Amino acid sequence: MTGPAPESRDPLDLLAEQFLSAQRRGEPVDVEVFAAQHPEHGDALRELLPTLQALEHVKREKESTGGARARVSLAGLQRLGDFRIVREIGRGGMGVVFEAIQESLGRRVALKVLPQASLLTGNQLDRFRREAQIAAQLHHSNIVPVFGSGESDGYHWYAMQYIAGQGLDRWRLQQAEMLPQGSGAWRARARFVARLGVQAAQALHCAHGQGTLHRDVKPGNLLLEGEDKVWVTDFGLAKALEAEGLTHSGDLLGTLQYMAPEQFEGRYDVRSEVYALGVTLYELLVLRPAFAAKSRSELMERIRTQRAEGLRRACPELPEDLAVVVERAMAREPGDRYADASAFAQDLQAFLDDRPIAARRQGAVGLLVRWCRRNRLLAALAASTLLAGIAAGVVGWVAYVATDAARRAEAQQRQRADTNLARALTAFGDVFDALVGRDPTLALEEDPETGEPTVIARTVVDPAAVELLQKMLRFLDGFAADNAENQSLRFETARANRRVGAIHVRLGKPENLDAARQAYDRALLLLEQVTARDVTREIAAVHVDYGRLEQRRPSLGAAASRFQKALLLLEQDADAESRPVRFERAQAHFLSAQLADRTAQVGPRAPLAPGGPGGPGGPGGDPRGRIVLGSKQHAQAALQLVGKLLEEEPENREFLALQARCLLLNLPGRPGEARRERPADSQADAQREQGLAILRDLVQKNPAAELWRYELCSAIVDGQRRDERRPGRMRREPGPATEVTDAMLAALREAKGHAEQLVKDQPRMPEYQMLRGEVGRLLGTALRDRADGLPAAEQHAVRRSAKAELETALAVLRGLVPEGEPADPRHWFQLGGTNHALVGLCLTLGERAEAAGHASAWLDLVEAQVTLLERLPRPGRQWPPFVALLPERLLGEPAFGDRVRALQRRIERLLPPAPPDRPGPDRRGGR
Amino acid sequence: MDADLDPLEATLRNGDDAALAPLFERLRERLLRMVQFRLDPRLVGRLDAEDVVQEAYLESQKRLQAFRDDHKPFFVWVRLIVQQTMVDLHRRHLGAKMRSARREVHAPASGAISGFFVGSITSPSRAVMREELRQQIERALDSMDEIDREVLVLRHFEELSNKEAAEVLGIQENAASNRYVRALGRLKGLGTQLGGG
Fold this sequence. Notes:
- By secondary structure, chain A is of the alpha+beta class.
- Chain A has seven domains: 6-65, no CATH class; 74-162, 2-Layer Sandwich (Phosphorylase Kinase, domain 1); 165-361, Orthogonal Bundle (Transferase(Phosphotransferase), domain 1), CATH 1.10.510.10; 364-529; 534-602; 637-671 and 681-721; 759-927.
- The N terminus and C terminus of chain A are likely disordered.
């Protein structure tokens, strides 16, 4: 008790204080002795000191008797309901915590008692109890068990297991007081903190798994018991007391210092708790909070906009790996953190075990990419912010270069700025890759850390992601235009354009296909202007992608020429014999083979419906006759290349998948009429089975690789389609049905399983829904035909299940285009075929009203198609004359007869005179 | 107990909120005493000093910014918050009857203080003497300057240092010191009577 200016104080005051201090410390004091020691004030002291002593006496007496306390206060609480209070453990914002004995159960508890001054309303009390109940359901070896809550003697309480320990907030302050220490102590503490972190993270993860968020993770809510056991306490209590006046309504939930930036925007999820735990561990490691400020607003601003000082900067003795792990957990963007508390725990454990940590420092971009890969959907949503950051880096570079200062700047500085730009651009590309996959047609990607190829979980492609990517693209495009001299910018922009094109192709709507064409054209244009580096492979890749898109056109020449260009480029490539280039060459050969196969079977024909802006195509093949190889030669070249690749890498799944694709290509008579009459080709059948087996194996081992599943399912369906096309299958009346074998049904059921899985995984992919619809249609018609061959008693049940399959297919297909007629001819075909099959089946089942409904819907489709065809300058010669397939019985119905006859007249006008040898109705319509 | 030398207090001032709880804990006893001493007798039984201090703790959590903005020592600052909390609670519970809540809380009447002194003399046989003594003390207190009286209370019952008392009252330290000695002088002669009680 020393004042800064003792000379200014009354000397008597100082002496009195000295005397009183001694007395308060419990030292023996005597007025007379003291006065004698200070003779110059002796008399005055003899007068004053007894008064002083008397006052002190009164005060102490009052304290010991409880004085003016008129009722049992919290501090003096002896008993509360069933609880006998042992002692006070601590106090916090939410009341007083006692050690107590729950007498009925004879157990020791920690009893949290809320202060009475804050009265709870009924609703708030309900919530408090509800939260206590939820917390009571959490069971984990590091979560303090909650026994219950209630109200006794006007106090609201919350009983937990008693933990003999202290909060880590206190521990931290004690440790801080012990500073400074040697580096050994820091390291030991680092491991200690990591061990606590593992336990706390596991506890949080357990709660998260049960849908419970803690909402106030901080050192004070982690109790340290014994040497190194940590208990997480007060689960959900912050939420329970929200707006209760206890944590003060209007305040943000939780404790500001540990709040994640996104909380200020009202977002909160498990990653916010990963963050809070990260910030907590940070504080325990360096013994001071990660964020500190003089005011709340300043603190919020810091959390939102600044990074905490680097752990190793704050404390160089800390192990690097641990710093990386903790800093990752407390990344500002939720997307940059561990995806959940379990991943955080695992990496902390990896540090403790001296294993490599997952979050090895790889720069923000690396983290970003990793995370995007793991959380594609979330990434798509969060990417706008991330990209804004990258864009800022790029823009910053431009601003820098634009200044005069930069022009005058040292070459070195200029170079640094360029490096930054290059990094930002690469980041752009990487984010892009992570979002959509490097090549959307491939299911594998290399893990950046291990170099192992891994299966992409699921490439979620939805319109929102596309919109986002297009925004990026516009930015890049404009940026590249403004910085024409920058070659790498052009290259990155070209790459981005190619990827956007690929996404559009996957989405598959006509407007997407137009957009894809534009993107590919733009990519090629940009690549042509890149002279500083070899972009041959990239150009080839664009051509391949472009060719894939052009395959959708009725005219296949454009696609063929794209593949051809790609092949030529790849063969001229400096690394033509390298493994990746050989693989790409095999791909191009395969695609060319597939295309040539289609060209051969389809022959010259006009579109079924108005296609894209490409309009009607020319004759089969390239008009200039540049397709030098036929489908067989291409297929052989592809198989040869891939066979060689597999010799080198027998386990490579991409190679295997391509091999399977090539094998499945060589189907006898697949799927067109050109080879239909050819006798069965046993070698081709064997190849087909081999291809299916490879795909089955790939799908089984990589259940998440949807692309392979799609290919497998399509291949099975292809086989069944071929069978179905045999004369008489589709034509219900009057032709006899071909026999439906058990093997056929089994294959279709397998396909159905795969298709269902695909639709479940990717509900927004039209391709998958189309496939699901087709499988349903094929299975339905197969069951229908099967029923015909069964004894009468069994027919009905099989027909009912046939009808169910068809109805499912109809629902899926209708879902693709909720209103109006379908724009995609293939879609139209599936829908019309399903409708038509249902008409016949319902009639067979005697459900005339339903049959009429389906027939009416079907006629609407036909009418719409006829109307479209009438507007075309060159009507299709191979118009599938569905109308002729209308069940005879329905033709007799007056309601339909007139419509059908009118349609027939219109169609006849559209059709050119049929050559005498053409089989007519079943030619293309037998699906 | 000089605030400027306390590392924990510096920690709190520098933005580490975790230091609040232990700092507050250290003061809890003194704050309780302050509240007990100044709580309106009409509120005894309705309000508990514990509750008031708890309420003040929550309030101080909210207002940490103010602590960091002006340079009052922690104790002085917390004490102000307790005082304000009491004023609010007095107003809330006594309403219109308590127009002068602020004043009463800030400077208790002589009667309250004398009652506090003599309240400890519990022996019935000394009831008469107690009443006499009470009047005597009250006269002594009444004769004091209001600020002298407050200094005495702060220094003695709340165990503030001279510096703290000066800061609480917003006066110079030497002035506070002189006032303390002067107030003690007014009470001289009471020592033997009280001490015997």
